[in-house]
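Readers of this paper often ask what the protein records in our data store actually look like. Nothing more is needed to write down the fold, since each code stands for a local backbone conformation. Below, we set out a record of this kind in full and without editing:
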Amino acid sequence: MEAIIAALITGILSLAGVVISNLVSNAKMSHSLEKAQAVTDEKIEELTREVREHNNFARRVPVLEEKAKVADHRISDLEKHINS
């Protein structure tokens, strides 16, 4: 009878140890995942900002190219007018 009680107590304490160990391990893992997710979210926000900047430049460059073309034609016309 004493052996059964000792075995039950040992089993219960072992189970409690495993449960506590798993809870602590899960809490650490959860914290690590939250930290990794925060880093990932920050990187995504930075990339989004960079893409928006790039898109803004992509819209403005054709306008600048067209203005440069117009300026080149005007310069050519002025040079022809001066040389004639």
Summary: The first helix runs from residue 2 to 83. The mean pLDDT is 93. The two ends are 123 Å apart (CA to CA). Helices lie at 2-83.
